[in-house]
């Protein structure tokens, strides 16, 4: 059931026409013709570009299959949608181009009115767009400069996961961001310093002790006093690391809680207002 729903969800006209085109380019002309005809039969109100491509593929496939009457019928449907349609001779075999040009020439008396009608529709759309722009321009001239300006500040979601208070700074909580940043810098510096100090003491040959010297050397080669010091340094190292990552986790949680994807600020003469917009 889930697989069926997934197939139906993916079965869009665009996906179907791509499948038909792929089958034609692969040389499976019967499959391409079936896919194009099935798409046209199931969707009587296809978007014009998709319908044009479907009839084009159907005509090409039928010609390749040797069924010229079916190819002619498909090309007639194609020309009824786009009277100025042509086939690229660099992509389509010359016999099909010649056949298509012949079909178009024979249908020219019927195509001329269609071509003129499409030209008039395009002209009306152009005039309507010009009228809309002129109306907006006249309104702008009449009303004068805008009374307010909306400043949009987009926030990046992934910045919430950066350390040193980046998420807080993005959300406008500067004080909290400074506290988090300073805390992480201090704890990070203490952690790194303790690591370097531990390594320096543990790897210093001059601080080694030997079995021959029983005083302060119960567990060679590290003296007892240095061993205690290294244990204390380890405590500082682990505590500072825990505090660093604890502050980091708090910063992420806090920035996500207060995260606003977009801030719209309305600025008008004499005052400013802020609108918060959530856009996930």
Catalogue the unreliable spans. Answer: 1-9, 276-280
Total domains: 2
How big is the Rg?
Answer: 38 Å
Q: Helical content, roughly? A: 55-70%
Helix tally equals 10
Order of helices and strands: HHHHHHHEHHHEE
Describe, in short, the structure shown:
This protein is mostly helical and 280 residues long. It has helices at residues 2-10, 13-26, 29-42, 48-64, 68-81, 94-106, 108-143, 166-170, 174-202, 224-257; strands at residues 149-154, 262-268, 271-277. It folds into two domains: 11-106, Serine Threonine Protein Phosphatase 5, Tetratricopeptide repeat (Alpha Horseshoe), CATH 1.25.40.10; 157-277.
Can you walk me through this structure?
- With 280 residues, the protein is mostly helical.
- The protein folds into 2 domains: 96 residues, Tetratricopeptide repeat domain (Serine Threonine Protein Phosphatase 5, Tetratricopeptide repeat); 121 residues.
- Helix content is 66%, strand content 7%.
- It contains 10 helices and 3 strands, in the order αααααααβαααββ.
- A 3-stranded antiparallel beta sheet has the order 1-2-3, with no helix packed on it.
- The two termini are 30 Å apart.
- The N terminus and C terminus are likely disordered.
